[in-house]
Amino acid sequence: MNTEQLNRLLYGSKLLAYMLMRRTTYTLTIVAIGLLLYAHGVESDPGNLQLIYYAIDAILAVFVFIYLLRILYGFERVKFLKRTWFEGSLMALILVNHVGTYLLDFPIIYNLFEGIGMPLSVEVYRVFISLYMLMLLVVELLETKVHLKTLQVKPAITFLMSFISLIAVGTALFMLPKMTNDPDGMRFIDALFMATSASCITGLVVIDPGTYFTFSGQVVLLLLVQLGGLGVMTFATFFAMLMREGLGIRQHVAMYEIMESESIAFTKGLLRKLILMTLSIEAIGALIIFMTWGKEAEFVNLGSKIFYSIFHSVSGFCNAGFSLYPEGLYSNPLRHAYVLHLTLAALMILGGLGFPTMIDLFSPKAMRARLHAPWRNWKLMTRVTVYTSAGLLAFGMVTFFLLEYFNTLSQLNFVEALIASFFQSATTRSGGYHTVDTSAVSVPALLIMMILMFIGASPGSMGGGIKTTTFTVIVLSVWATIVGKRNIEIGRRTIPHSVSYKAFAVFTFAVVFNIFFLIVLSISDAQFDIVRLAFEQVSAFATVGLSTGITAGLSDVGKTVIILSMYIGRVGTLTLALAISTRAASTAYKYPDTHLAIG
C-alpha cells in the first residue's frame, strides 16, 4: 500500500481520531500533573510512590502512542516531523527509556544520572515531560478560535494575570507537606511571600531556602524564578511557536508591549533568540560557578554541586538573588570567593541590560554587521542603556567604597574592597546578592543604595525599578527646562514629549506607591527604624531583594505590604495603570492655554 492509498484510507476517520487524541491528551495531562504533585508534595510511603510512578510512566507511554498516531494522520508526515521536532525528540526519549526500563531492565535515565549523584533526576525528567504536555494543553486552549473570540483582553491585563496565576500555583505548591522540612508545614502568608518573591524575581526571604525547603521545594523555587524572570507569557508564546508555524499579529503586539521593544517588527524572531540566549548564558554561568566553588564549600555529592551551580546561575542572571546558603554570598564558605562574586556580578549586569540591548550587542547577526561596517554605531536604545548603566555602576562603586572603607570594608585589603564595592553597586541594580553585612552598612551608603535600587535595571530586562531609560529621559527633560530648550534631544535625535510624559508618569506612580506603603509599614512595624523600613520597601518595589535583616521579623501586615510592592514593582506601575484605565472618549480637541506659577 502506497502513501496516497494510506491517506485515503485514513481520511474518513481523521476528524474523529483528532478529537479523541486531543481529549485523551487533555485528560491524561491533568491526571499526570495531579499524580506528580501528590507524589512530590504529599505521599511518603515507598510502595504507594512506586505505584504512582508506574501510573505516570503509563501515561507517558500513551503520549508516545498518540504522537505516533498524529504522525500517521498527518498525511504530510515529513513536514509534521520537522514542525514538531522538539516534541518528537521528547517522545523518542520517553520511548527509549521505557524500553530500557520495562523490557531490558536497564533504566537508562536513572543509570545515567545515578552515576553523577543525581538519582532524583528521574523525577525531574517526569516533571519536565508533564509540564511540557501541560504547556501544550494551554497553548491548544489559547489558540482555539472560540476562546480567542470570547477573551478579548488587553495584553497588559494578560501580563498581570499570568503573574497572579504563577504566584497562586507557587503558593499552593509551597504549602504541600513534602516541600518543607517543617513538620507543621508552611504558613499561608509565608508561602505567598516566597512565591511572590520568586515569581517577581525579588529575593527577599522569610525563611532560609537552603535548610527550610526540601529538594522538591528548592526545585519549585528555581522554576518560579526562571518562569518569573522570562515571564509566563514569554514561555507560553515560545511553546506556541515551537508547536506552530508562526505567530499572528495579536501575539506580536502582545510581545511588543510586554518586552517594551522599539517596533513590532523587532519582535519577529525575538522569542527564539531570547530563550536560547537566556539558557546559553545561564549554562555558561553554571559551568563557571561549578569550577569556582572553593574547598570550603562542601557538597553531599556531585549532583548537589551541579544543582547548586545551576540554582545560583539562574538566580544571578534572573536578578533574583536567592541563595541556598544561610547568609547568601556573605556565608563563610563564599565570603572570599571573589571569582564567584565577579561571575555572579557579570550575570546580574547582563540580566539587567535588557534583551533588546543584549541582542543588539551580542547576537551573531549584529556582530557580523559591525565587522563589515565598523563605523556603524549601536542603536540609540542600546547606547542609552549601556552608558547609563555604566555610569550608575561606577557611581555606586565609588560612593560605596568611600562611605564604607572604614566600616563594612575595613577587614579587606584595597583590591578586595574594590571588588566588594563593585559587587554591591552591581547588585543594587536589581541583583539581590550581597557580599558584606548589609545590616552594618552606614545610613549614607544605604541612602545611595536606595537611589540606585529605585532607578533599577533597563527595559525588557530581568530587573525592576523605574528603569535606566526613564531616569535618562527625566534628567534630559529637567536639563532642557533649565537651559530653556524647546525640545529634549539625545544623540542628534529629538525625544517626543509623549515619552517625557510617560517617564514622569512612571516616576510619579513609583514615588506615590513607595511613600504610601512606607507609611503603612511605619504603622504596622514601628519596632524598626524608618531607614530600614524604607530600604526594605524600595528593595521590594525595585525587585532587588537586599535587606538589612528585618524581613523575617515583619508582621503579617508588613509582609502583605511587601508582597504587594514586589508584585507592583515586577509588573510595572505603568502596566498596572494601563490595565485598569479606560481610553479617553476623544482627544481631538484643545482648550486655550493658561499659565500656572511653578516653583
Low-confidence stretches: 145-151, 239-251, 257-266
Order of strands side by side in the largest beta sheet? Answer: 1-2
Number of helices: 27
Beta content: under 5%
* Computed Rg: 26 Å
The helix/strand class is mainly alpha
Roughly what is the average pLDDT, rounded to an integer?
82
Biggest beta sheet summary: 2 strands, antiparallel
Amino-to-carboxy terminus distance: 88 Å
Order of helices and strands: HHHHHHHHHHHHHHHHHHHHHHHEEHHHH
By DSSP, the count of extended strands is 2
Query: Overall 3D geometry?
Result: globular
* Amount of helix: 55-70%
Write a structural description.
With 599 residues, this protein is mostly helical. Among the domains are: 1-152; 348-579, no CATH class. The protein contains 27 helices and two strands. The chain has helices at 3-11, 14-41, 46-73, 77-83, 85-103, 108-114, 121-143, 145-150, 155-174, 188-199, 209-212, 215-230, 232-243, 249-259, 270-292, 302-317, 338-353, 355-362, 364-372, 380-404, 414-427, 443-455, 468-483, 497-524, 530-541, 556-571, 573-580, and strands at residues 488-490, 493-495. The protein has a two-stranded antiparallel sheet. Helix 10 packs parallel to helix 26 and helix 24 (497-524) runs antiparallel to helix 26 (556-571). The longest helix is centred in the N-terminal third of the chain and has 28 residues, at 14-41. The radius of gyration is 26 Å and the shape is globular. The model is unreliable at 145-151, 239-251 and 257-266 (pLDDT under 50).
